Amino acid sequence: MGSWGTGLYHNDAAADVKMVFGDLSRRPIDTDTLVSRVFETFDCGKDPASEDDFDIWLALADLLHQYALDHPTTTGRARQLIAEGEDLAMKRELGMSPRDLDKRKKVLAETLARWSAPHPKPKKLKVPSAPEQFLLDVGDVWVFPAMQHSARPFHEKDVDQSFFMPDGWGAFAVADRWHEMEHRACYVFVLALPSGQDRPTLDEVRSAPLQECTFTMSPDDRQWTYPMIFGARLGKRAQGLKRWETERLGTLPIDTAKVRSIMPDTLKNRYNAFDPDGIAWLENELTVSSVHRAASNARTGLDWRIKAHEHLRLCDLFVGA
User: Fold this and answer.
1) In a domain, 151, yes or no
2) Is 3 within the bounds of a domain?
């Protein structure tokens, strides 16, 4: 169970719904699709006894009201949760104190009253007039300074960068690109592991082994090993490429179909589960085994180990290889 409180968004599930809704509301999609994508993201409605479902329904209905979007099924169910006391009963069962239950009851009453009339100043949907521009081309090969096979931490304002002392180089090739839901620019990346401390040449990256990741999840020590091939987006667009000090070496004849045939399943996106598209961030993928994430990984029982793949090299993924 996550943390929760008396407010409509004072819990993990509702806060995450707000984040996902904000992202999806910027897509060129209708209200039915937006709602269904939120439910899919959180697996809402699959478990009648789920303690998070009530918070998800209420948060989603409130957000629809804020944006003046009509979805009777959602708003009707949310009103029922309040009017029939289901939400309060669930919170009582979860152990909420009598004092907090009184506060929650007041919040729900105020929410129901607010929903009884159209929002006086509804928020406007900020849907872009065109899809995101592609920044990378299929076949492009990029290199970046690396420490223990990881790029420089992306969130420079939050992380002490003094520890980052490159001991080699990393590389990635762009194997495919597309617009998710006709909006977000996404790519398939292949990470390679060039040897040596000097900046590699295009030929050296061409013959370099792929990166292989062994991912372990505690406490049951479930483990997966897979080549570092994944679908991802650039969370901060060009800023990331600049901060990582990336350099474009050139273009290689990547076989998109061959790369997709050996891509791992969706495991790698699970730790980024609240991206509405289920697409990872390149910012995360280039730093999964980095020093600056070691402490947080240890706290959450996650461990990533990177090494050179024993069989696959980048040139094995070329057209005609």
Assistant:
1) yes
2) no
* Distance in angstroms (rounded) separating the CA atoms of residues 279 and 273: 8
Does one domain contain both 88 and 151? Answer: no
249: tokens are 């070496």
183 and 290 co-located in one domain: yes
pTM above 0.70, yes or no: yes
Alpha-carbon distance of 314 to 140, in angstroms, equals 12
| DSSP alpha helix (H) spans, the chain | 12-24, 31-42, 53-66, 72-83, 86-93, 98-115, 202-206, 238-243, 256-261, 282-285, 294-300
User: Quick one: 101 and 241 in the same domain?
Assistant: no
Q: 276 and 227 share a domain?
A: yes
What is the three-class DSSP state of 51? coil
Question: Could you tell me which residues are beta bridge partners of residue 180?
Answer: 184
Residue 303 pLDDT exceeds 90: no
Tell me which residue of 42, 37, 9 sits closest to 23, measured CA to CA: 37
Answer for the pair 282, 154: CB distance below 8 angstroms, yes or no: no
Count of positions (residues) in the chain: 321
Both structure tokens of 59: 């948060």
The residue segments making up the domain with residue 80 are: 12-115
What residues have CB less than 8 Å from 180, skipping those under 6 apart? 186, 233, 277, 279
| Whether 176 and 257 share a structural domain | yes
User: Looking at the structure, do residues 105 and 147 belong to the same domain, yes or no?
Assistant: no
Residues 6+ apart with CB under 8 A from 299: none
In this structure, how many other beta carbons lie within 10 angstroms of the beta carbon of residue 1?
A: 10
Residue 2 has pLDDT above 50, yes or no: no
Strand partners, 184: 180
Give the model confidence (pLDDT) of 192-229 as tens digits.
999 999 999 999 999 999 999 988 887 777 888 889 99
Radius of gyration of the chain (CA): 23
Predicted pLDDT at 156: 57
